[in-house]
Amino acid sequence: MNLQKLLLTKNNCYISGKTIAPIGILIHSTGANNPNLRRYVGPDDKLLGHNPNNNHWNQAKPDGSNKCVHAFIGKLADGSIATYQTLPWNMRGWHAGSGSKGTANDHYIGFEICEDGLKDKDYFDKVYKEAVELTAMLCKQYNIKPENVICHSEANALGIASNHKDVMHWFPSFGKTMDTFRADVAKEIGSIVKENPPASKETLPVLRKGDKGEVVKTLQKKLNEFGYKLVVDGDFGAGTETALKDYQKKNGLTADGICGPATWAALNKPALAKTPEEITVENAMKAGVIVADADYWLNALNGRITVNKENLKALFDKYHTVYANKK
C-alpha cells in the first residue's frame, strides 16, 4: 500500500473536531469518471499534481455543510496508485448521509475509491488491492472484524446511509462482491499478523504508576482501544491508573491498577464491536422510544435481525420499566 497523508484541515468536518469510536469501515466510490486524486485532495504536494479547477475538498463551505471521508484511493500525477488519508481515522466524517435507523457517520471510518470509466480492469485490480490493504490495516488498528466492513449500498440496506449503489455497480463487473472483498481483507489481516507477531510475555513487564517508556505507551493504546481517552505519552500517571482500574473492574480482574500477565492477556483480546442495531437501540433509549420503533424491537428480539439478544432484551426491559413508571 502506498499510504500518504494530507489532512483536509480547511474542511468543515476537520474544523468541527468531532471524534468517533470506530466500529466498522464503510467503502464508497466517487460516482464520477475521474480517477485522479487531485480532484478531491489538495493542495498539490508535488505528488498529486495541479488541480486547475481548484475544486478539491480542502476548503470550507460558508454554510458549514462539507462532506468528507477519511481517505481517497486513486491516481497520482505519475499514474501510480496511492491512498491519501484526509481525516484522522477517529474523526467524524460526513460520508454516509442518513437512513431510517440513523447514520454511519457516527460510527464508521469511510473512504472513497476514485472511479474511472468502470471498464479498465488494470486500474480496478490496483485500486481494489489498495482498498483491501487499507481496510486490513484499519481493521487491525481498531479491532474491527471483516464482517463489519460494508459498502454504501449495504449501509443503506441496514438503514444507516442514504440510497446510493456504490460499490455494487462496479465490483461485480470484475468478478468481485463485498463478500469476496471481506474474504480478501481477512486474508490480508492474517498476513499482517504473521509479519507482525504479538509481543512475547518477556516484552510485556508488570507496569504500575510511576513507570515510563514505550511499553507504557502500548498499555495506553490498548486501553484506548476499549474506549478510554488517554494521552499516549508513555507516562503511567494517575489518569492511566484510574483507567486501568476501571478496565480491570469491568473485566473481572483484580482492580489494583497494576498491569500484570492477567491484565495484559485481557487487553490483548480484541474489543467487541457493537452492531449497528445495538447502537440504534442505545440511541433510542437515550431519546425515548417511539411507537414506530416497535416492529424493529420485536424483530430484533425474535431473531429476525442479527443482534446481541441478551443486551437488547435488557434494554427493552429497562425501557418498559421506565415507561411504566412514567404512567
Explain what you see:
This protein has 327 residues and is an alpha/beta fold. It has 3 domains: 3-195, 3-Layer(aba) Sandwich (Lysozyme-like), CATH 3.40.80; 201-267, PGBD-like superfamily/PGBD (Muramoyl-pentapeptide Carboxypeptidase, domain 1, Orthogonal Bundle), CATH 1.10.101; 276-326, no CATH class. 37% of the residues lie in helices and 9% in strands. The chain contains 10 helices and 6 strands, in the order βαββββαβαααααααα. Strands 1-4-3-5-2-6 form a 6-stranded mixed sheet. Strand 3 (71-75) and strand 4 form a beta hairpin. Helix 2 (121-142) crosses helix 4. It is globular, with a radius of gyration of 22 Å. The protein starts with a strand and ends with a helix. 32% of the residues are buried. The model is unreliable at 289-293 and 321-327 (pLDDT under 50).
Secondary-structure element pattern, one letter each: EHEEEEHEHHHHHHHH
Strand content: 5-15%
Count up the domains: 3
CATH superfamily grouping of the largest domain: Peptidoglycan recognition protein-like
Task: Give the key terms.
327 residues, alpha/beta, Lysozyme-like, 10 helices, 37% helix, 9% strand
In short:
Helix content is about 35%, strand content about 10%. The protein is built from ten helices and six strands, in the order E-H-E-E-E-E-H-E-H-H-H-H-H-H-H-H. Helix 2 packs across helix 4.
Helices and strands in order:
Blueprint: E1 3-5, H1 12-16, E2 24-29, E3 71-75, E4 81-85, E5 108-113, H2 121-142, E6 149-151, H3 152-158, H4 178-195, H5 214-225, H6 238-250, H7 261-267, H8 276-287, H9 294-301, H10 309-326
Parallel strand pairs: 1-4, 2-5, 2-6, 3-5
Antiparallel strand pairs: 3-4
